[in-house]
């Protein structure tokens, strides 16, 4: 996950976007926080945990489901949910999952179905071969 997340976060920050990374489990959020702190110094990504001091100043905020925070980009990990309204109010939404985790894949498929049935445009990108490749795309519709 970290290998996919770092380049995506770097691109968001280069655009001047505020990012919220949403997870379902505190342990997963804490592990991500640790991973981001322990990365190479030249790839450091400024971030913080929801509920901590200066939360509003963090360009990347790690939060659990249910914690609302202003953002330009919402990244959902670990099967965390996203609604059509959240997609419409964001510049970008990414649903990140590991393809070797069956439950997370099922959640991602269910989210794809729910969002596209609500008329939301969606793209499925995979990094299975090492480089990002577009696997599927659905245009927005008037649902």
* Low-pLDDT regions: none
Q: How many helical elements?
A: 4
Q: Can you tell me the overall shape? A: globular
Report the radius of gyration as a whole number of Å: 15 Å
Oligomer: single chain
What's the helix-strand series? HEHEEEHEHEE
Kindly state the mean pLDDT as a whole number? 92
The proportion of residues in beta strands is 15-25%
CATH architecture, please? 3-Layer(aba) Sandwich
CATH topology: Rossmann fold
Which SSEs are present, and which pair or pack?
Layout: H1 2-14, E1 19-23, H2 26-38, E2 48-49, E3 60-64, E4 73-76, H3 84-88, E5 92-95, H4 102-117, E6 122-126, E7 133-138
Parallel strand pairs: 1-3, 1-4, 2-3, 4-5
Antiparallel strand pairs: 6-7
Architecture overview:
InterPro entries: DNA_pol3_chi, PolIII_chi_sf. GO terms for molecular function: DNA binding; DNA-directed DNA polymerase activity. Pfam families: DNA_pol3_chi (PF04364). The protein is α/β, with parallel strands linked by helices and about 140 residues long. The protein has four helices and seven strands; from the N terminus they run αβαβββαβαββ. It has helices at about 1-15, 25-40, 85-90, 100-115; strands at about 20-25, 50, 60-65, 75, 90-95, 120-125, 135-140. Strands 2-3-1-4-5 form a five-stranded parallel β-sheet, covered by helices on one side. Strands 6-7 form a two-stranded antiparallel sheet. The model has no long low-confidence stretch (mean pLDDT about 90).
């Amino acid at each position: 996950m970290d290998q996919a997340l770092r380049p995506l976060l770097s691109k968001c920050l280069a655009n001047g976007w505020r990012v919220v990374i949403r997870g379902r489990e505190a342990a997963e959020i804490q592990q991500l926080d640790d991973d981001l702190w322990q990365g190479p110094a030249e790839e450091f990504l400024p971030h913080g945990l929801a509920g901590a001091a200066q939360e509003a100043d963090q360009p990347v905020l790690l939060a659990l489901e249910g914690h609302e925070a202003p953002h330009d980009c919402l990244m959902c990990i670990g099967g965390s949910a996203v609604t059509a309204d959240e997609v419409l109010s964001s510049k970008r939404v990414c649903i990140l999952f590991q393809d070797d985790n069956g439950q997370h894949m099922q959640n991602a498929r269910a989210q794809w179905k729910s969002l596209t049935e609500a008329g939301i445009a969606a793209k499925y990108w995979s990094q299975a071969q090492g480089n990002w490749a577009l696997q599927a795309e659905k245009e927005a519709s008037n649902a």
